[in-house]
Write the structure tokens for this entry.
Amino acid sequence: MSIWKEESFEDKIYDEVESFFDKNIYNENDETLAFDIIDSLRDKNILVVEKDDNNYGYLIPLLYASKDKDNFKGFLISTASLNLQEQLKTEIEKLSILIGVDIPVTIAKGHVNYVCMKRLEKYLRSHQENVTLKDISEKIENEMIDKKDYPNISKEIWTNINVNGENCRKCLYNRECKYYLNRKSWSNAKYVLCTHDLLVSSLKRKDDKMFKDPSLLVVDEASSLEEKIKISYQGSITKKMLESLINEISYIIGNKELGDDVINSINNFYQKLANVIKNEYENNRKDYKTDSEVIIDTLKDDILVLFNSLSNFSKSIKLYQSTYSELIYLIRKLKSYNNVLYDMIGKRSKHRYSFYFQPNSKGLVSIKYERKDILELSSFLFENKKYGKVFTDSNIIVDNDDYKHFIESLGLDKIDDIEIVKEYSLGGSKIKK
Ligand code: SF4
């Protein structure tokens, strides 16, 4: 049974927060937000609220709630930048002292902010003289190395030693790698400050979430979330990506010639694609980006030839049954690219496509795609009715149309049976969905 239905707990939080504001000088806006947050904890609704960046009133009820270790499942606060994460952590520490709580706050940042032991070791072999690298190398066995502690490190060095999408699960260092161990611990953390990118990645994983369900999700600077969600569903396929994939698979199964035919098909297709885009550029558009109808109509047969060629390659490698995880991963990737080609020429395409030719980059040609049903996908991310969700921003809300636009931009209006409460401006009147 949900604790939030129990009158005593709810009343207790209201009373404690009220008494906090009696004793401490905070502005009215913080107080309004604090009480709205208690409503969202209780009702598991969606609260969309305009607030200034420095209104931290929402932290006060969350910190009081953290005293109830059994029933409060914690909070997940997502922010748009690393600076905001740090500011929030500082604010939580300050308020925790005032309120008399001590909670372990986890800051979850993207992998590019940390050093990978394996890559560091490799890079260090040819850069023994570098003092900073030596310093990192001495520390890395005992602590996670965060970029913020090395503000002067060059971009070139950093991009050679940071975590860059390696498959950590099969890495030989993973039992000792502090980054990997820390990341694994996120799924049990109760008080988390994460970035929007990580929030979206976690919500997209239905069964294997990075963060556990909290009692309240707060999305600060929420107007930038729409773009993050869109980007997370976009993809691209270049000639180089397909060729590398085929070469890697052929190398792993020990038959380098196996991919020769499909590599030819890839070359032919991308050559034709480049020619069509160049023709379009010269004849009418003066733009190296071409939209899907023109290309797909012109190259429908060629897309089919490439699709068949990749399918035949996939069939031929089935003979090489493998339990090798890298090969399984690459085969899945190949299948996903081929699904995109199939979708492109299918009648009910799920994606919107665009095609690019970059004349100054050795003729790089790429296929880019994004989901047509992005609003439905976005609404699925927030349909979980087990916890409340609060979206705040200082920019989105000026009048009712801005609220409407914001709510629609995330597909929140498509979620059934969840009340959406909108706060015009702090201290102003509330309206309901
Ligand atoms: S576990 Fe991942 S981050 Fe750690 S050393 Fe291995 S590849 Fe790098």
In short: The CA atoms of residues 42 and 406 lie 24 Å apart.
